[in-house]
Design brief:
The chain has 16 helices and 21 strands. By secondary structure, the chain is an alpha+beta fold. α14 packs across α15.
Length: 498
């Protein structure tokens, strides 16, 4: 009997496949890297053909690890980063590499769109246009690659193109439609008015269906490439942030989550849309619910940087061990994690990272502690900015690779003053598998999927004394950021002239 579920997530650096049983236990995983090209400064592209090649490698690995047969899989769910579009011609040929969400080439087009129709865009599709969003990417293609723009007959979002490789079908879900910044929340359909801003015909956009809607089955050709059983049911799925937030069990208004991944992301579940640009707002898996998302640029990326720079032999375990030996506050060593500029709450690409308060008594252990604390301060910065807009947070579910660090989890609890919970599994591939289970009636509802499959493993409650210390240091952290911003800009000006 087919009762197992397969979730697939296309991340920025790799594709991951996860197989779970009906109780939500992970039976097997497989992953394969994908590469990003940077043809020019500020550009970021990937080859969609490489996505499918990665899928063809990750699925057999997951099947082998799980010990089940492909025929035992009841359903497949797929997720990928939002905003990433694939353009094809009439024959289905991909016309150009996919522009990634972190690509900055369309800054001028985004500014022009906001100046011309900013309020219209926010009113319809809930978010402010910037280079992250598909609308701005299309404006850039129209201006700089008019031949490709004219040839394009279909637009796929990333997860939809990957699913097309398995099913041959063309559709998307409403959360990804909002992520394209081409949808109308009032009608829950594509917006002809927003499409007209960039000269894109609605006929070149896919039908919108529910994330759990079964769109087709694995074709024989795809089965031969992937090791899946032909005809296995596949649901539409949704973007990575939507399914991973759901997979963490955040299904009630006020529930929040923090993802400690390449970037750090703060989520909050809301009843109805909560529109506070530049904080992003997306539809939730639960009908009628939405969630906000805001992020800091350098999280696990800063973690890896310090590991490679100062702890190449001992790696992350050594960093954890040493950081635990240092008292809260790292004896006055503060870290601003702006290694790649900063998004929220400053939206300043010219900010630079720093260690502040360094003395001769500080050791590598202090640097490790200060890094964990600096990223936690950055997360608190996001929380404070969100609270200033009227958003309210209860407990926080922690997601991402950084959540494995017990030291870091406690620091985040102490810095934010919130209880930090962790679940057995919460990444996007796990969430995608749950969506497949809803669509194939393994679970009777989204709420039932969470009740059955999401289990807490531990919780970190804030230490009041440490929280008081961190609150005092956070004010210094904020004051230092404000004082150094202008100096960061001056440094950039000098470097740019060299």
């Amino acid at each position: 009997m087919s009762t197992y579920l397969l979730g697939i997530d296309l991340g920025a650096g790799s594709l991951k496949a996860t197989i779970i049983n009906p109780q939500g236990t992970v039976l097997g995983e497989g992953s394969h890297p994908v590469t990003t090209s940077v043809p020019q400064f500020g550009w970021s592209e990937q080859d969609p053909a490489e996505w499918f090649a990665a899928l063809c490698a990750a699925i057999p690995a997951a099947l082998t690890a799980s010990g089940i047969q492909a025929s035992q899989i009841a359903g497949i769910g797929i997720s990928a980063g939002a905003h990433i579009c694939v353009l094809t011609d009439e024959s289905g040929q991909v016309l150009r590499p996919a522009i990634m969400w972190n690509d900055q080439r369309s800054a001028a087009e985004a500014a022009a769109l906001h100046a011309a129709a900013g309020e219209q865009i926010i009113a319809a599709s809930l978010n402010r246009v910037n280079p992250t969003w598909t609308l701005a990417m299309l404006a850039w293609v129209r201006a700089h690659e008019p031949d490709i723009f004219a040839k394009a007959r279909r637009l796929y979002l990333a997860k939809d193109y990957l699913r097309f490789c398995l099913t041959g079908t063309w559709e998307t879900d409403f959360s990804d439609a909002v992520g394209a910044l081409l949808a109308d929340n009032a009608t829950k359909t594509w917006s002809p008015e927003l499409c007209a801003l960039v000269g894109w015909d609605v006929s070149r956009l896919p039908p919108i269906v529910a994330p759990e809607h079964i769109v087709g089955g694995v074709t024989p050709a795809a089965a031969a490439r992937t090791g899946l059983a032909a005809g296995t049911k596949i649901v539409c799925g949704s973007n990575d942030t939507t399914v991973e937030f759901f997979g963490a069990g955040a299904i009630a208004p006020g529930m929040g989550a923090v993802k400690l991944a390449t970037a750090g992301v703060l989520y909050l579940a809301t009843r109805g849309p909560s529109v506070h640009p530049p904080i992003s707002c997306y539809p939730h898996i639960i009908p009628g619910m939405f969630y906000t998302a805001t992020g800091t640029n350098s999280c696990a990326s800063a973690h890896r940087w310090l590991r490679d720079t100062m702890f190449p032999a001992g790696g992350f375990p050594q960093m954890d061990t040493l950081a635990a030996t240092i008292p809260p506050g790292a004896e006055g060593l503060l870290f601003h994690p702006y290694l790649q500029g900063e998004r929220a709450p400053y939206w300043d690409p010219l900010l630079r990272g720093d260690f502040l308060g360094l003395t001769i008594s500080h050791t590598p252990a202090h640097f490790a502690r200060a890094l964990y604390e600096g990223i936690a301060f950055s997360i608190r910065d996001l929380l404070e900015a969100a609270r200033a807009l009227g958003l309210s947070f209860g407990t926080i579910r922690l997601m991402g690779g950084g959540a494995r660090s017990a030291v870091w989890r406690q620091i985040i609890a102490d810095v934010t003053g919130l209880t930090i919970e962790r679940t057995e599994a919460s990444d996007a591939s796990f969430g995608a598998a749950l969506i497949a289970g809803i669509g194939t009636f393994i679970f009777p509802s989204p709420e039932a999927a969470i009740a059955t499959c999401v289990r807490l493993t531990d919780a970190n409650t804030p230490n009041p004394k440490h929280h008081a210390t961190y609150t005092e240091l956070f004010e210094i952290y904020k004051d230092a950021q404000a004082a150094l911003a202008g100096i960061n800009h001056r440094i950039h000006a000098v470097v740019r002239r060299k």
